[in-house]
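Pasting as-is:
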Amino acid sequence: MSNFEFKVKQKSKEEGCFARIAELKTPHGVIETPVFMPVGTRATVKAVEPRELEELHAQIILSNTYHCYLRPGDKLIAKAGGLHKFMNWNHPILTDSGGFQVFSLSKLNKITEDGVKFKSHLDGSEHYFTPEKSMEIQNNLGSDIIMAFDECSDYGVTKKYAISAMERTHRWLDRCHKYHKNTDKQCLFPIVQGNFFADLRLQSLKTIVPYATVGFSIGGLSVGEPKEKMYEMLDVLAPEYPEDKARYLMGVGSPDCLIEGVIRGIDMFDCVLPTRIARNGTAFTSTGKVVVKNGKYSEDFTTLDPECDCYACKNFTKAYLRHLFNVDEILGAQLLSIHNLRYLTHLMEQIKDAIRENRLLQFREEYLKKTGYK
């Protein structure tokens, strides 16, 4: 019996809503979708312990191939028994291909048909990623779900360039597929590209689906474009998705985008946003964003969010959280990171309840009105 399986359990009956509830089976557990995946870039979710991730109901986390390759090295992680043992997380892990970081973080990169030569953002040392190298690194990391190496073109490029990047992504996908041999323990997700051209997106989807055994990713969105542009591309793709494959929208994690994405048929999301803004003193709440560093909270002895069941909300006040940030105590970042991640995992639970009751569109309207997120 396969270690990987995707089953749709329920689909929304609302007109114009492509939302569904499904189960994604992996060697390290079954994930109920729609799901938000906290990001553990360097084999850790910043300021959050694995125990705390379990307590806030995280089902799966993402780790980054590029960063783990540079430090401590994928071969060292392999010696440790893979990411799961290295970071003591006995639940599903997804790794990206490293491609986005190669293109966005490196001081200098040169793209050829064979791969990408780049300089490390850490020390300027030269490295070379090919589709085969990305597969080798991810095989060493031992994640449950791995991504094909792709070229993510920037928002605003010409259609000619978008075509070139998309076609190269497709050729690289074929090489990833041929090199990846660890298919019983790791599932390869191909990636839809095509920039912001509807015809290219549809062409890319059609090309990559034969490579998708269990699921696939939609890349190249949430890269600086207006949200309406992202929704436009998702609207184009939604009616064309195969029903029996998981759909993962990469790099998306604001509450409004999670709801809009699920309505457009997305099953999986990830983003550094909740932990990044937490470290800067900003919290998602049921009534909108709260910047706890603000002076108006200095004598506010109420909980951060009365509708949240996280450790921070059950035990501390806004005044105390503000104090922690005001004196640069690490605990402030820890507590807000726990809160923001629990806020999003709880939001996904609310979304699933709304799908079950065929009221997701109504939930969206009420939620956006209440929180002001947009």
